[in-house]
Protein: Cyanate hydratase
Organism: Actinomadura algeriensis
Amino acid sequence: MSKSEAARLVASAKVRSGLSWARIADEIGAPVVWATAALLGNHPMPPEQARRACELLELDEAVAESLRSQPSRGTDPAVMSDPTIYRFVEALSVYGPALKELIHDEFGDGIMSAINFRVDFDRRPDPDGDRVVITFDGKFLDYRW
């Protein structure tokens, strides 16, 4: 079974079950953003987590096998046109150059790893409307000559 087919089955089963991504992540013992990305096909899951997720969502071994397999990471143009995802692209288009300069000022010549990386998601109440808080936490990798 393809990763995209497994992701479609996971998403449908999540709706049927009434479970939130946070609850599923908690049940499989993983951070919510990582677990959601893995269940949508963007990370390989360890066997026990794949088994537990499929058990929770009442999905079969074919889905668990797909969840354990190595993904092909890339950018799907259809996904990139989604308004929520496009706002991330827009935010990085506006603030990316400034963040790059700030990283160089603070750390020197290098980059933030997206492999040795964590991302956190939270909701913060605000009188003007709740705020979405996303934190990227990547290891600094200096360029070595």
About this structure: DSSP finds seven helices and two strands in the chain. The chain has two domains: 3-68, 77-142. Residues 83-107 form the longest helix (25 residues).
